[in-house]
Design goal:
The chain is an alpha+beta fold. It is 45% helix and 18% strand. Strand 11 and strand 12 form a beta hairpin. It is extended and about 95 Å long.
Amino acid sequence: MAEKGKTRYGAWIIVGVILVGLAGFGTGGLSGNLRPVGTVGEKEISVAAYQRALNEQVRALSAQFGQPISLQQAQAFGIDRAALAQIILTRALDNEAAQLGISAGDERVFDRLQRIPSFQGAGGFNRETYRLALQQSGQTPSEFETGLREEIARTLLQGAVVSGIPAVDAYADALVQYIGERRDITWAIVDADALTSPVPGATEADQQAYYDANPEAFTLPETRDITYAWLTPTMIQDQMEVADSSVEALYQARINEFVQPERRLVERLVYLDQARAEEAIGRVNAGEATFEDLVVERGLSLADIDLGDVSEEDLRGAGEAVFAAGPGDVVGPYNSPLGPALFRMNAILQAQETSLEEATPILREELATEAARGFINDSANGIIDLLAGGASMEDLAERTDMELGSINWTAEIFEGIAAYDAFRREAAQVQEGAFAELHDLADGGVFALRLDGITPPTLQPLDEVRDAVRDAWQAQARQEALIDTAEEIAADIQALTDFTTLDLIPQTDADLTRRSFVEGTPPNFNDQIFEMAIGEVRVIDATDRALIVRLDDVRPPDPADEGTIAQREALADTAAQGIAQDIFDAYATALQERTELTINETTLNAVNAQFR
């Protein structure tokens, strides 16, 4: 929604450096009238090259915002400097390649030229298409081919810089060892039933001591007294008129949502190659393994491979076989976008059709809500003008469709308007006497607010919270007694002790990794068991109970497991890519530091001024 006098973007966007293409963007009419933007070594930065880089950066930023961005807006994000920095780096590499004698021959250039999609005709590369494309982009064949030649040489230089990176096997092995190490435990819960005597009640002295030691638990948060005016689509959607023709048009536009073909609930297990997939389906067909066994062997869960409900078309080459299968059948291998895969069909979902008559109430409400959003959007400028003229919240409620409200807001309140993040954000930072502004709500509504006063955090008197203090002290005393009881029991547990002989109900968990989750345990449970040695027994505080845990075994990852192999390869690839990037960044920094650079600020400013 349009709004005057304020920025309506939620956060700065971190703009990455984007490689600038050599063709496809218009350059206007400046390049023939201005000196170059600058020089890097012996290479010029042409006006056209800077314009293309700037165009690309602004288009990328516009795509992120979802709307066109002007150069003035883009400059606030440093886009012009990012474009200049990128083209400086490019020309520094071009200069270095030339100094080193790295170049591309005519045959290599022509081969690359023939493979550019923009220059293709019905029979492949078309010279007339090539000529027209360059003419539209304001380039001559000589300029373009020179740029292409430099790009090839630059790529060779970059490849030489990052080639020869040593293997990162030790690094990958160490990470896999850490991530994939497995542990077996036996553990049991010690709860209030294990206490042999009741925990005594808190005396007045106990209560006073607990109250004094934990003031934050009995302190009311800062309260902000706020008056606001707001308008949401829900408030006015019943007033919006929606034509039957509009409902029918929306129904037809979303017909795939209301008329669905027969579908299947499917799971897909992908393999690295065809041979492994065929070996797996062979084991299933021979009764040597179940589909669940295959999933576990890959280190996955059924949730990891669940495709949900899919159509025959969604499954591509596997569609016909899956739709011919019965519930529980496993078929394959068939090619998928991720590689050869086995598919298990779990259930049939019959075709469904919702008629226009049945869909009308839902669609009418959607259209009414959208119309309400449009009405609010159209009203925004008028509301902003009223605020600029000094209108109060009460004035807005009287002179517009906005509704007046008030709230004693704290960070713990989420009801009503406080359920909106935008309101919470503004409520937390608004100051007394501040000029009121109009703000957006996530559902298309708007609001303005005024801070009437602040009540600072206040410690409640003991007499007002005595029941809460007593309950908190009692819970702490009971937990301390549980920990003491658990420690006494744990002292009798040895490596082979049967927990049942100590009146404990044991639970065993095997093959736990650092990523595992054991239901019923506190958040630090995994951290603690991975600090333990084999045979060690530890008591873990679980807030309202105690856990006795014994570490029974420690095993390294299975090096033959396909999941382990894939994880190791992925870690090695990621590490190698990171090292290569770091090496190139260091090289690029050093290269630019020792390459003479001049920038013509007059030309730069002229290009920016003429930017469209």
